[in-house]
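Ticket reopened. Same input as before:
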Amino acid sequence: MTRSMDKISDFVFRNATYLIFAGVLIYYGIQAPSFLTPESLVNIVKQASFTGIAAVGMTFVLLTAGIDLSVGSVMFLAPLMAGYVMRDLGMPVPVAVVAAVLTGVVLGSINAILIVRLRVIPFITTLATLFLFRGFGTWLTSSQQFDFPDEIRAFGLSGVFGIPTPIIVFTAVALVAHLVLAHTEFGRQVYAFGNSPEGARKAGLKVGWIQARVYIICSACAALSGFMLIAQIGRLDAAFGEGAEFDVIAAAVLGGASLFGGIGSAFGAVIGATLIQTVKLGLVFTGVNLYLQPIIQGVIIFIAVLVDGMREKQVLAKMKRTIRPL
Amino acid sequence: MRSLTSTVTASLIALGGIVAGTSANAATICFAFQDLETEFWVAGHKAITTTLADQGHTVLERNANEDANKQLEQIKDCIAQGVDGIIVIPQDGESAVTIVKEAQSADVPIAVFNRPPTDTSKGIVVVADNKTIAEQAVDYIVEEALAKAPADKTLNAIIIVGDLGDPNAVGRKDGFYAAIDKHKDRFNVVEVASKWDAATALANLEAAVTANPEVDLLFTSSDFLFPTIRSVFEPRGLWKKPGEDGHVMMAGLDGDKTACQLIKDGYVDATGVQDLYFEADASLKAILAAIDGGEAQPNEVVQDPGFALTQANLGTDEMKMWGCVLLAGK
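Engineering reply: fixed in the latest deploy. New output:
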């Protein structure tokens, strides 16, 4: 009896995020049955894809016990540069996508240089670049709205076999990130660095280069995320992306990434971003009072993170009591 | 085109003239704004700074980039520099109260432009009558929608609400309901939060339309969200002109260039117009009069009555809307 209870509790804690996700879906589905229609579910994943792409990049940084607070500003500045490339140089959308991602790489490199070469801690570095990147973009636009050429909206609203482009891009980013983290030497090095930077250094890993690459990847993902979102609207305003870093970090953490490094996965970020969006859009579906929506959002996300934290403790406690791998 | 250019020039000269009549001495004015993210703020910023500079006043501009704490520090800095008066576009109603208090404690006259403090008894407060303006715009689309619908049909209405920390957003929401409640039994209302953020509005509106695919009427609390609405409506066949199948009656509020173009094109049916030039003029007149009169803590509320530009009065009232003036000037 006790053994079977243990098994159940193990199962619950191991799959806490998924169970909460399922619970949220069922609850909203009962409240508003149209919430579970294919169109609605596709919309949830589509809206989650913007935060999700950036959250996948953020997972790389969190795995190294770092943090990147500048992602919201990168989401603003990178599509802006792509917009100039389209509007002033007359370049097509694919070139603009490349321009946005390259801008992300450059911005990520600035973070990387400050963190790895100048040894400024990531929190301070990216807090500074949060203001630096947004300030630069605000200066370029003089705080005014930037209208993109019409082609960008055609791209943003396009799809393949009925699947919206943002979902395809999100899936591709998550798959590539999963392959890199789970099946490449670099991926293993990222986990090793996150678990013990000193141990990784003593093992002969080029820790500076590992750390630099995760910030570049994170900014590149944020840039792509910003571009995909702007491609939906076709207009960038001065406040675009502001505060997005909190959603992105919350999605990655909700997906199981530890702020202390070494734990997390690309698919976890996908689940985290989708769960957050499910909670938000479910409130719209069920017609919850606008004043109550932020409170309910906060409570559900807090519960999810709390249960996730308890799960982590439970798993660690189990590992101490057994010599067998869990 | 020449007459339109003349209209714009005349407006600015008239604005300058009125202000010149109240102020003989050159003053140093601190103009602190929260950001310039919409056409309304850009045009307001231009009207205020250009007129002050033309009158020989020195303008210290401070952009808070939507940070209320930063704006308070900027105001303190302006006071420390010994400015004669302050014009502020605050981030929200609560921070505006603190800013006005700070200025009045230092005996510096202050005017709040367009976004009112939650307590309007202190400082010069120039504000649009958001509730009435919104009600006028929504009245128009409600009547049009009801006229076209069968008498027994319940219509679906969506309101995109702004940041509920902003009194303007609350006023506009109240105005929407004042119009809808006149025909309470005929409407189902869905509220969509935007927090004045295009990305938030996009996600929430998409969900709202997925949940309620039949939309008869939409009111956005700000015209700047029309491109976002288009992104959601167009793929669903709801972005149509009057007479085309699927046309949704739409109204906004602000009166910007985008709204003007969309009304002319027929996609949008009405928008509530804040009289930007009146508000800029009133702010300047009041602050300069206080400086000249040596009044350190002037308290006054100046209300912009505004109006609604609709498909019905477009021909006669187009050039009363600042967005149409700017559009023509382009």
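Chain B has a mean pLDDT of 88. The first strand of chain B starts at residue 28 and ends at 33. Please confirm and we'll close it.
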